[in-house]
Specification:
By secondary structure, the protein is of the alpha/beta class. The chain contains 14 helices and 13 strands. The protein folds into 2 domains: 231 residues, Aspartate Aminotransferase, domain 2 (3-Layer(aba) Sandwich); 116 residues, Aspartate Aminotransferase, domain 1 (Alpha-Beta Complex), CATH 3.90.1150.10. The chain is 40% helix and 13% strand. A 7-stranded mixed β-sheet has the order 1-9-8-5-4-2-3, sandwiched between helices. A 3-stranded antiparallel β-sheet has the order 7-6-11, with no helix packed on it. Helix 3 packs antiparallel against helix 9. The longest helix has 18 residues. The termini are far apart.
């Protein structure tokens, strides 16, 4: 019988390489995951299943330096609940960035609030805090910094501006589990923060999942009233709630991967530095780079170049995987946001690709990527 690790090694190189490692990590942890799932399936009471989720919530809270954590069915749901816990709705405005997954925008719009975009910093591709205050109006209620590509936005400055203007900070850390800012995990700075366990994340479930974290008991208690059913009165009264819970079947997978998160981050950091060294003397090429205060989890390695069209074409010819990370159109942004003037964002959207990184990739593939990219310049 071919062992899972050997099987995946046979699939990863050249034309069979994949940008994401969806099944690879599961295969390496197969025995531990299967044992955990069998335990879930043998559980005989709702209370025991709930306890499994509760234990993982505590484990996750410790990992991200938070006091409280609450598991839900997806990162999208987590974003929506994070907004609702502050009663954000019609007439309110929420400031965020445009280069993000659609869920950030969807969650804001679903509350009835308006979305207001601020431009990004050119070096990091993250929220430019120096342009933040000019976007604040009398209707602004919250700021959502999005920690894209595994990097952290400048949380100290963003939180300072929020406090000065009496605004809530909701960290969208769905892309950045394992990252930190000034030595403190992303997710530990905001009033509420959200994480995603979508299968493409560094800690990913076979299906989906999400987590809300906070440092404040009163916020955690209010979130529980929004997220969890009131079972004591479920058959006797209506409830203004939208129940959503992390599936106990996801817990064994997530717990196993969470324990090995730093190993995964270390691998990606090494790969990022390989690309960084290869392109260091080429002015026509640059990588989005975490700030000096950030420890990135390197979910993505973003290459920016005016020659990106040729680079994409040549990588495709060689059957080498790459990705485009969230490319909303100007028409879409103008329809769903207020005051769209985002020159740096639009430039990044037009001129970037995500280079392949991950445990499932051999160094030979990274060398092939760099040769093809450099051949275009």
């Amino acid at each position: 019988m071919v062992q899972p690790f050997k099987l995946f090694q046979q699939l990863i190189f050249k034309k069979n390489a994949r940008f994401h490692e969806l099944g690879y990590a599961n295969a390496l942890l197969e025995d531990e995951i299967v044992s955990g799932i069998k335990k879930v399936l043998k559980t005989t009471s709702f209370g025991e299943l709930e306890q499994l989720v509760n234990c993982f919530e505590k484990e996750f809270a410790v990992c991200v330096h938070a006091k409280y954590a609450l598991g839900v069915n997806s990162g999208t749901s987590a974003l929506y609940y994070a907004l609702k816990v502050f009663d954000i709705g019609p007439g309110d405005e929420v400031i965020t960035v445009a280069n993000t997954f659609i869920s950030t925008i969807t969650a804001i719009r679903e509350t009835g609030a308006e979305c207001c975009f601020v431009d990004i910093d050119e070096a990091t591709g993250l929220m430019d805090y120096t342009k933040l205050e000019q976007k604040i109006t009398k209707n602004t209620k919250a700021i959502i910094p999005v920690h894209m590509y595994g990097m952290s936005a400048n949380l100290s400055e963003i939180c300072k501006i929020a406090k000065k203007n009496n605004l809530f900070v909701i960290e969208d850390a769905c892309q950045a589990i394992g990252a930190s800012f000034q030595g403190k995990s992303v997710g530990a700075w905001g009033d509420v923060s959200v994480f995603s366990f979508h299968m493409t994340k560094l800690v990913g479930a076979p299906g989906d999942g999400g987590m809300l974290v906070t440092q404040k008991k009163e916020i955690h208690d209010k979130l529980r009233k929004i997220v969890l059913p009131d079972w004591d009165n479920a058959l006797t009264s209506t409830q203004i709630r939208m129940p959503s819970r992390l599936s106990p079947l996801m817990v064994p997978v997530l717990s196993a991967k969470l324990k090995r998160l730093q190993n995964k981050v270390s691998t990606r950091c090494t790969q990022y530095k390989f690309y960084e060294h290869a392109f260091s003397n080429k002015q026509e090429l640059r990588l989005l780079k975490p700030s000096s205060k950030t420890e990135s989890s390197y979910r993505n390695c973003i290459l920016v170049s005016d020659s990106i069209g040729k680079i994409k074409k040549n990588l495709s010819k060689a059957s080498i995987p790459y990705d485009i990370i969230y490319q909303p159109s100007e028409k879409f942004l103008n329809k769903h946001s207020l005051n769209v003037e985002l020159p740096v964002t639009y430039n990044l959207i037009r001129n970037h690709i995500a280079l392949p990184v991950g445990d499932h990739l051999e160094k030979d593939l990274l060398e092939s990527v760099t040769k093809i990219v450099l051949s275009v310049i």
